[in-house]
Write a structure and sequence with these properties.
By secondary structure, this protein is an alpha/beta fold. The protein is built from 9 helices and 10 strands.
């Protein structure tokens, strides 16, 4: 399944990194040795690029070309620096609204969240460099192209982004069932960032300790949780509702 956002070959990937290309992920052949391979590994570690070691069969499925033991996915979008993104929103005079994604792994959920974010006026989405879903063809399709409209920032650690947002006067609110507060008990009228957890684990406990507030969705049926993209949509439209009340008053 080759595509225009894919490159292969050790030297080609090294050159792509050195030229400033944003790589979503690099697949490396298990057990491969050699100076060029070691150079690529060192560069991946230095730039903190998401990577994984896979059997050669996996690489052969990704491309039928001479991959030399390495295949990389190039991001189809340019990512934004978090400091520039936040400052631009604050200086615009808007009431900031951001989404933090704590390692959402499903590209369809990621794409659906981006689509809803664009529809609800989210100023930016912040993701971690490792552990989350990539921006690829499936993400673009599910987002209905919104991935090209909503600024996305990649950070080394979600905690770093939280600290920066909080220092900038932006409240971080966790979407979690580990609270008595529902979304109707929380004010989203002030500058805020909503953090959504991964599909299986939810928000990392160490991250949850650092938030300013927590909110959950009232669930009236027997199923214990909603799909993360659906839950995110409910949160975002509660933000829209509360902020429209201010405008309409």
């Amino acid at each position: 399944m080759e595509n225009s956002t894919q490159i292969f070959g050790l030297r080609a990937i090294i050159e792509a990194i050195n030229s400033g290309k944003t790589l979503e992920k690099v697949f490396l052949q298990k057990g491969l040795k050699g100076d060029l391979f070691n150079e690529l590994e060192t560069l991946i570690r230095k730039e903190n690029i998401n990577s994984s070691y896979v059997p050669v069969e996996k690489l052969n499925r990704l491309t039928n070309k001479n991959h030399q033991g390495a295949v990389a996915q190039i991001s189809p979008i340019a990512f934004h620096d978090i400091e520039d993104l936040v400052m631009n929103v604050i200086e615009s005079g808007k009431t900031p609204l951001f989404i933090l994604l704590d390692q959402i792994s499903d590209v369809r959920n990621f794409g659906a969240i981006i689509r809803t974010a664009e529809c609800t006026g989210v100023d930016g989405i912040i993701i971690q460099k490792k552990g989350g879903a990539p921006v690829n063809g499936d993400t673009i399709k599910t987002s209905a192209g919104a991935v090209f409209k909503v600024p996305i920032s990649k950070v080394d650690h979600i905690k770093d982004a939280m600290f920066y947002l909080q220092a900038s006067g932006i409240k971080v609110i966790a979407a979690t069932e580990k609270t008595e507060n529902t979304i109707y008990d929380i004010s989203f009228k002030e500058p805020c960032a909503i953090i959504m957890g991964s599909e299986g684990r939810g928000i990392n406990p160490s991250v949850l300790k650092l938030v300013d507030d927590k909110a959950k969705l009232p669930l009236l049926g027997e199923i214990e949780s909603l799909n993360v993209s659906v839950a995110c949509g409910v949160f975002l439209y509660e933000v829209v509702r509360q902020r429209r009340l201010i405008v309409d008053c």
